[in-house]
Amino acid sequence: MKKGKGKNTFYWGRNVTLLFDSWKTDSWFSYSLTLIACLLFSVFYQYMEDRRLRFKLLSSSAVSNNVDGAVDATPLLNTKIFATGSRWRLGRVAGSILFGINSALGYFLMPTIMSFNGCVFVAIVVGLAV
Q1: Which listed residue, of 6, 15, 52, 124, carries a Cα 20 to 30 Å from 94's Cα?
Q2: SS3 of residue 100 by DSSP
Q3: 76: number of Cβ within 10 Å
Q4: Torsions phi, psi of 92, nearest 5?
Q5: What is the pLDDT of residue 5?
Q6: What are the C-alpha distances in Å from 44 to residues 26, 84, 89, 109?
Q7: Distances in Å between the alpha carbon of 19 and those of 83, 85, 109, 129?
Q8: Average pLDDT score over the chain
Q9: What is the pLDDT of residue 86?
């Protein structure tokens, strides 16, 4: 993190430390790989958020619209587990697990942005937008 006179400001240099003391960039190659990793990580975060929200939507519609216990679903999600009783509870547990994973991913992105490196910030914002 760039520190100077008691306040943090954005900087645009290639020397950055992210999350761990061992993740330091000292060359353009390592800096480029770090930016690509930030971009991909933020894309994955948004993908997981989308899956979690779809999972929540499908589980609630499966419970309220349950005629024969089946609802159309994406290949990632099998909503037959939301039919009734313990199956519905299993769906809620799975939704909670997805929420936990997504929260952990978000909490890793936060200190990454707080490195105050301008290109890291841009890479994460672009990844979230993708």
Answers
A1: 124
A2: helix
A3: 8
A4: -65, -40
A5: 54
A6: 26, 31, 27, 11
A7: 42, 42, 9, 22
A8: 81
A9: 62
In whole angstroms, what is the distance from residue 33 CA to residue 9 CA? 23
Q: Taking the mean position of all CA atoms in its chain, how far away is CA 41?
A: 7
Residues 6+ apart with CB under 8 A from 46: 127, 128, 130
What percentage of the chain has pLDDT greater than the value 70? 74
Residue 71: what pLDDT?
46
pTM of the entire structure?
0.72
Question: How many other CB atoms sit within 10 Å of the CB of residue 111?
Answer: 11
pLDDT digits (tens, 9 = 90+) for 76-109: 555 454 445 566 677 788 888 889 999 999 999 9
Distance CA 88, CA 102 (A): 21
Q: 11: which strand partners?
A: 117
Within 10 angstroms of residue 82's Cβ, the number of other Cβ atoms is: 27
Q: Which amino acid is at 58?
A: L
End-to-end CA distance of the chain: 26
* DSSP code, position 10: -
Specify the length of the chain in residues.
130
